[in-house]
Amino acid sequence: MKSEKTIEGIVKALKEIIDQNGLKYLTDEPYLVYTKLVKSGTADRKTAAALLHLLASGMLETADPGYDAELLSGTIRRECSLNKKISDRLAIILYTLYSEKNKKEWQRKEREGLCRFLREMFIYDWEGFAVWDAGNGTVDCHYKARIILRPTEYVSEDRELVKLLEKNSFTTKETIYDLFAKRLQKYLDYEFKEYCTEDDYYQPVVEDYGSNLEYDLQNWSKENGFEFVSCEGSGGDDGYEPKFRRGWY
User: Fold this and answer.
1) Whole-model pTM?
2) pLDDT (0 to 100) of residue 190
3) In contact, 217 and 232? CB cutoff 8 Å
4) pLDDT by residue (tens digit) across 149-199?
């Protein structure tokens, strides 16, 4: 009974790892899987070490662990040079883990995050900041905007996203959102800084940045597989501040 409970716990832990990190995680990161099982107390070191050996061997990439537990045990003994007792144990773990129920669930989750992301508007609240420096004084510039874009099918061809999905096909909508949000933030921060600092002698009119922002967003959208929908924002500055007021001499 204790052995059955231990096997059940290992299967549950492995499924949680796959659910969070994708089907390839077990073979891509076998040592991390081993570490998680041992640190959590889910598996004893002997079983965890045998599983590490199996995952690192690459056997799981060619065998069908959900087909037949007895045949799987024989394959494990042959390919991994383990005794029958531990091979049978690992076979039961893998056979239970890769049940038809779990495989159907994982099949449904394939690229589900991407599908959900493509169905919804991409809404991002951006805050920009830059400093115009005239040499003897500075102006702090601010701009805030709510941006709405529409993802298109071309988003799925994005190189960084493709790599992300290859590593974990269960990547969530939220993770994909963060990928593009960080990219957009970096792009707009740079463009806003360029706008505010391009002229050393004339203070930027931050209130007029809206038209530039819309132009930048249209360019970014085109390059990243989105359609520009709308942008509402406002900006201003804190006024000219001579450097001597800050204690600069």
Assistant:
1) 0.83
2) 96
3) no
4) 999 999 999 999 999 999 999 999 999 999 999 999 999 999 999 998 887
CA distance 65 to 96: 9
Tokens of 188: 């707009």
Q: What is the architecture, at CATH level 2, of domain 115-246?
A: 2-Layer Sandwich (3.30)
Return the number of other C-beta atoms located less than 10 Å from residue 49's C-beta. Answer: 15
Backbone angles phi, psi at 175, to 5 degrees: -65, -40
Q: Where are the domains of the chain?
A: 2-109, 115-246
For the chain, give the DSSP string: -HHHHHHHHHHHHHHHHHHHH-TTHHHHSHHHHHHHHHHTTSS-HHHHHHHHHHHHHTGGGTS-TTT-HHHHHHHHHHHH---HHHHHHHHHHHHHHT-HHHHHHHHHHTTHHHHHHHHS-EEEEEEEEEEEE-SSEEEEEEEEEEEEEEE-GGGGG-HHHHHHHHH-TT--HHHHHHHHHHHHHHHHHHHHHHHHHS-SSS---GGGHHHHHHHHHHHHHHHHTEEEEEEEEEEEE---EEGGGGT--
For CA atoms 11, 12, 14, 19, the dihedral sign is positive
Beta bridge partners of 124: 147
